[in-house]
Write a structure and sequence with these properties.
Layout: H1 12-17, H2 36-46, H3 48-57, H4 60-79, H5 85-116, H6 124-127
Helix pairs in contact: 2-3, 2-4
Length: 167
């Protein structure tokens, strides 16, 4: 990204700090004049000198990510001074946990429904695998038995003669 001083207007940082934007300004590539609030938030939370030190210590290819992280954290701290982005992350983690519980309950309901449609009981050697979670089985395979989900299973074959004689 080119320095803002070459386009004629100072970068957002230099404009905020009321100083002349020099051609080698460390802030210019990351705080364009069109985004003054981005630097204002970062400056209020971290301070311009701390941001300058941080950017000077980082290799140029990592600076953009660092500025984006600082800007995100600063905006989160402006909204929630105590928790900042950690509060937002906590809310999202709780939401994921709640949705996972809802998904597990829905899958359990689906399995119960599928089991009620089976005309004969499940064979003992297959029932141990029923409802085992499978990772990358593709679409529709969140719960799958290794030997034949979707249900119903075929009914077991029983000998016609209970005595075991071949007569």
């Amino acid at each position: 990204m080119a320095s803002s001083s070459s386009s004629g207007s100072p970068c957002a940082a230099c404009k905020f700090l009321r100083r002349k934007c020099m051609p080698g300004c460390i802030f210019a590539p990351y705080f364009p004049p069109e985004e003054p609030q981005k630097f204002a938030n970062v400056h209020k939370i971290f301070g311009a000198s701390n941001v300058t030190k941080l950017l000077n210590e980082l290799p140029p290819h990592q600076r953009d990510d660092a500025v984006n992280s600082l800007a995100y954290e600063a905006e989160a701290r402006m909204k929630d001074p105590v928790y900042g982005c950690v509060g937002a992350i906590s809310v999202l983690q709780n939401q994921v946990q709640r949705l996972q519980k809802e998904l597990d309950a829905a899958n359990a309901d689906l399995i119960r429904y599928a089991c009620s449609e089976i005309p004969a009981p499940l064979p003992a050697h297959r029932s141990a695998d029923f409802g085992r979670r499978v990772g990358d089985g593709g679409e529709g395979s969140f719960y799958q038995a290794s030997s034949g989900f979707p249900l119903p299973y075929p009914p077991p074959t029983w000998p016609d003669n209970p005595s075991g004689d071949d007569s």
